[in-house]
Amino acid sequence: MYSIKMRASQNSRHISGSEKIVTAQQLPDILHTVTKRALYHSLGQPDLINLKIQPVDKAEIICLPALQVTEHFSQTITENMQFIREKLAELIPGCCDDIIQLLNNMPQMRGAILYDVHTRQRCEKDLQRGIRVTYMDAEIDSGMLKNKNHFFEALILATKVAHAPGMLAELCISDDPDYVTGYFASLKHGYIRLSPVKEPGSSHGGRIFIFDSSEADAETVINYLEKTKVLVTDIKTDFHQRENIQDCIRTELLQLKKADLYRQLKIIETQQQKNITIANQPLLMFSSNSYLNLAAHPAVKQAAAEACLAWGAGSGGSRLTTGTNSLHVKLEAMLAELKHTESALLFNTGYTANVGVLSALADEDTVIFSDEYNHASIIDGCRLSKGRIIVYKHNDMQDLEKKINSIAFTKGILVSDSVFSMDGDILNLPKFVELGRKYQLLTIIDEAHATGVIGKTGKGAAEYYSYQAQPDIIIGTLSKALGSEGGFVCASAEIIEYLKNKARSFIFSTAQNPASLAAAIKSIELLNTQPDLVQKLQHNIRYFCQCLQKNKLAVQSDTAIIPVIIGSETAALSAAQTLYDKGFLIPAIRYPTVAKNTARLRITLMSSHTETELALLAREISQAVHKSTL
Ligand code: WAQ
Ligand code: MG
Fold first, then answer.
1. Which of 213, 283, 426, 525 is the most exposed place for a label (fewest CB within 10 A)?
2. DSSP code of 207?
3. What is the pTM of this model?
4. Could you read off the pLDDT of 526-563 as tens digits, one per residue?
5. Using CA atoms, how far apart are residues 178 and 275, in angstroms rounded to an integer?
6. 138 Cα–ligand 1 center, Å
7. Are 369 and 403 in contact (CB under 8 A)?
8. Strand 190-195 relative to strand 69-73, pairing
């Protein structure tokens, strides 16, 4: 057998530690786990990891049965302190107050206080350090626990301590700020978990070992605690495989930060428009989905405000109960007209529209053919459905046809974005619909980034291809170019009736609020009556691509989404930061939104941007990209 001791520290400050006794066979795996724990700890990254591995003779090891565990979880710290006082009074009537006093004023120590009830003295040799209990582990495979499991480790330590000669009891409060559980342990009482024993956020904590020197002298006790090798047996296995989820979360967050994949919210202090401020810094926004600037359009805002006053703030029910009002009906009729379909149905967001439609339409007998670059909401819809998912190469109609022919199935669906959200390219809709007809597959497109953007009057992909092809189902959103909030589905009356009865995200959501509905109605009216809105956006797209090309960036797009691919996550973040410092808000898009090492700047344009702004931005991007990849 081998004993492992790990200590990690930063500037000599203790970060984490771990104790194991394992077989030679277990040693490599456990070292891996222990090192990982040292590396990712909420207290920081260590600059020293001390690993001590020693062979131990099996004959030296004492096996002890784990203490019985009970729980005493009360409402307040005071109640738990009272509980400790009562237990102490039963065991050692004389020194109760001394011990409580010590517990409340515990200094920060690496080890524990050793308190002698006979002399009423502390008897650690080094009062700053205290007594460190070492050489202990559980018989079961504790290596499976990837993260620290406070309870499990404490039970091992408490079992060893309780069996020390002359030991009466142990008190423990964790020093981890986010762990407020402690325990009282003795051979007689077992291990009693107590929670809470301190305020969350407090790093107060420590251990007190209470012994009687008339039973065994301090030297013997200390020698036992520090030197004797103990394996704890009979630990109930119903908990030992469990990991503390909060610890897993912490580790995961640290790993995201290390990999430059950690995301945070940006708080915008102005309405959604090209000129915004963040933390009082004025910025020019090149990352909004409000492509036509309708979220800030006076007429749209006015319509929303009036609807709120007339119809109230909320819809008050789900669509099939009490939530449908005349605004829903009017907007659905307008959407059906916009997309040249018989009928339409509103959803709360584009995400829930995709999830609802795909999960309602695809059963066990259905195969869904899905573009590899489809939006997460399509992917989630596929996953939630019972269908089999076949992913084909991005916008590759040959690969799609090959895959259709390569498997046997009874029902099939083709699903694709019509404008791809991270690349800004456009689906080959005529071929897509042709394949659908040829093989009798239901065709679905998601027009989230197409509506208001492509096609002569902004009606989307069908218009872009001069109505050569019309898919069976068009999904869309009100929250991008249309400047409001909500999702929608346009299709035949029959499909829409089916969705009303089967799409769970439709059935089990509260209907959209009146203000969003009225805003969307007004936006569609503007789209229908003011062609210059879309024309201005399309002009900006052409002009900006020319500017980028003049600055030697080979970028081409027919949509408002213009990606400048950089590659590494770090370089993309650095370019985005350079641009931010110059006053441009452009996000770096990284894994998992796009594949690893295809991180990019993702510029989105608005109809309200001016040529001067676009020309300036193209120059700045060129410089920032150059700088970030040096
Ligand atoms: N030997 C002696 N004292 C120690 C040792 C050790 N090996 N390790 C820690 N201490 C002392 C030290 O003063 C710490 O400040 C204090 O104990 C607390 O240590 O059932 O996490 O590692 O869920 O923060 C109790 C679990 C968790 C309750 C205890 O202790 C439960 C815990 P921590
Ligand atoms: Mg701790």
1. 525
2. E
3. 0.67
4. 999 999 999 999 999 999 999 999 999 989 999 999 99
5. 41
6. 16
7. yes
8. parallel
